[in-house]
């Protein structure tokens, strides 16, 4: 669901609103007027960007966990060889 930015042309109040496809332009929350114009929906773009950022972190985290597991495995093998030789 996209978040749209609106600006009231009666009182110049700006606000953001989560809008369903079927929804009509909302009334201004400040003056209750309906002279509201939709602006560019920047929040949707930034949400997408931050989602990609989170994915990057998750991937990096998974990689470091894998590294830790490899390390533990190597340690285990080293101890095993030491104990059984
Ligand atoms: Zn207004």
**In this structure, how is the largest beta sheet organized?**
3 strands, antiparallel
The helix fraction, in percent, is 40-55%
Strand order of the largest sheet: 2-1-3
Order of helices and strands: EEEH
SS content category: alpha+beta
Count of DSSP H/I helices = 1
Residue windows where pLDDT falls under 50 for at least 5 positions:
none
Number of strands: 3
Task: Tell me the domain tally.
Answer: 1
Portion in strands:
15-25%
Bound molecules: zinc ion
How far the N terminus sits from the C terminus, by CA atoms, comes to: 63 Å
> Compute the gyration radius: what is it?
27 Å
Q: What's the shape? A: rod-shaped
Overall mean pLDDT: 81
Task: Please render the helix and strand layout as text.
Blueprint: E1 3-8, E2 14-18, E3 36-39, H1 42-83
Antiparallel strand pairs: 1-2, 1-3
The structure holds zinc ion.
Residues 8, 10-11, 13, 28, 30-31, 33 line the site of zinc ion (ZN).
Written account of the structure:
- The structure is a single chain.
- The protein has one helix spanning 42-83, and strands at 3-8, 14-18, 36-39.
- With 85 residues, the protein is an alpha+beta fold.
- The protein has one domain (3-83).
- It binds zinc ion.
- The site of zinc ion has 8 residues, from loops.
List keywords for this structure.
85 residues; 3-stranded antiparallel β-sheet; rod-shaped; 18% strand; 1 helix
């Amino acid at each position: 669901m996209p978040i749209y930015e609106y600006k009231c042309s009666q009182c110049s109040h700006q606000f953001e609103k989560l809008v369903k496809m079927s929804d009509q332009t909302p009334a201004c929350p400040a003056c209750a007027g309906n002279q509201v114009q939709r602006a560019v929906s920047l929040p949707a773009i930034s949400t997408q960007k931050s989602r990609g950022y989170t994915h990057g972190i998750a991937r990096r985290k998974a990689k470091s966990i894998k590294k830790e597991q490899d390390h533990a495995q190597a340690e285990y093998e080293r101890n095993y060889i030491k104990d059984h030789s």
